[in-house]
Amino acid sequence: MGPGPRRKNSMTLRTLWDQEFIRQDTSSAMLNFLSPYRTEHAGTIPAAMKDRAIKLLHHKYSDQAQSLFAIACDLCHSRNHIGEEIGVMLLPATYTIDPQAVHQMLEILVDSSHWEVREWAASAAGHILSDHYDDFHATLIRWLADPSANLRRGAIMAIKVGSNKLPSAHVAYLLDVLQPLLADRDPYVKKNLGPYVLGDGLIKSHPDLVLPRLRAWVELPDETSRWNVAMVFTAQAGAKHGSDASSILNILATDTRPSVIKALAKAKNAIAKYQQQ
């Protein structure tokens, strides 16, 4: 039994959309085609549509890396959020053509005023970190110390994305350079580091490296550092290791500062929920 009429219509529309998009030969033509699909919520097109456009461009220029890089550059410099998001995700595949140019484009887009552009740019930076660690990690480390909270946050998000494929030695080094960010009080950095980058990322892919660091970091006297350590265990991947973290939780329990007390309560609640599953 074949697909029903509704699915056939959906498949036909997608094929027609693909064909029409592929016919757009310039970055400006692509953006003109995509702009009517812009949503009010984000001011850009839906993520699935961006992913589809990226996939189609990779396929169209599969044996034309220079052409793909040229389109990526045009889109990254378009000052159009749709173009910036699609263009930045073409950079990992074309990185070796001009690494320095890629670094410059990434830095601009990771520091964008548009939150969704920053998300896509940080993701692209993560893919480049995993595939070109030797060439890119110095740029990432510079971002970690930048006055811009956008760049610092983009760097830690890139580490989350890129760490899955990195060897332990590289991840250990990245944990070293992340340590100063534990005390970063900027809300944009803080709310992402402990609960997300560490709790939902690095502890999931490298628990053998992260847990010993947490046991060391909990000894840091700084309030924000301890808050970050506690918040690691509020994420499901972090809560999974709650039974291995009794010494960490015991030290946190002696801290009388309100933010640490609240973070520890959240961590204990998440651990209890995980253990009840």
UniProtKB/TrEMBL annotation:
Alphabetized InterPro entries for the sequence: ARM-like, ARM-type_fold, DNA_alkylation
Domain of life where this protein originates: Bacteria
Record protein name field: HEAT repeat domain-containing protein
Lineage, uppermost ranks: Bacteria, Bacillati, Bacillota, Clostridia, Eubacteriales
